[in-house]
Predict the 3D structure of the following.
Amino acid sequence: AARATSLGDSYRPLGRIVNEKAIVNAIVALIASGGSTNHAIHIPAIARAAGIKVDWNDFAELSEVTPLLARVYPNGTADVNNFQAAGGPGFLIRELMGAGLLHGDIETVNGSDLGDYTQIPDLYDGVLNWKPSPARSGDDTVLRRASEPFLAEGGMRVVEGNLGRGVFKNSAVAPELWRVTAPARVFASQEEALAAFARGDLNHDCVVVVRFQGPRANGMPELHKLTPVLGILQDRGQRVALLTDGRMSGASGKVLAAIHLSPEATAGGLIARICDGDRIRIDTQAGTIDLDVSQEILAARVPATAEPGSDVGYGRELFGGFRQLVGSADQGASIVAPCM
């Protein structure tokens, strides 16, 4: 940190560090590690700030050639301590570089190229030393070599159809659950969905639709409370999925979840016209997500609107101006400057 903030010879501002190669490296590392779907928003936003256009198509294309090398919660039972003990970031970076999937010739905050990050820090007798990462994983149920991956392709897919575009974290979901066709159950918040579960109103195959959770609606609060509920329904033998314009971090768990749906309900997305009972098809193997309702019926429907005051609380009302200017999740939910 001292070197990164030094104003001497080691000074290297953010604008010199974040370039096209660094952005590609970030996406590859995310996919290979099965990391958080939040980064499907964060990385495009960072790139946009640096004048680089990156979208979910880039994520999908890189995922096709990037193997999944880590099984860490929520796409496995191991935690970050187990990951570190198995070889950690040094092992992962070395394997990805060896497979030709990372750009090694980039400038870093450490003042070196990416190769230095394949080493592991070691503190002995109060002295910091660096040693090469291990040749083999310390636990191949947690971390694997590029030649022996958990999956040949990475842990993230893009789904697209008449409902818009969303993200699916496939590394945490069994392949036999990658397709769900079921009637919709529509809610305006995760609290509404949880209340329906408590009443026993979700005891059937369904696609749980939670809308008005996008960046323009309420800033995308975490929806992870839905994970255990949907998991219970699935364990009962029901075919269930989640469709939302909100986010679930990495916690979508074992249930098919198409998240970050763009355009969101507040921005005129078709998700605002879904009604209970409408048939929804999500096929993440084919990369499709569709509402099986005719154009004539959809055109006659009045789009739902969020309840007044639903964006108030926990200080969210202070950011109302930002929500009026924010772009879609697939564009990084970045602030869009108004036309002059």
In short: Residues 4 and 12 are 7 Å apart (CA to CA).
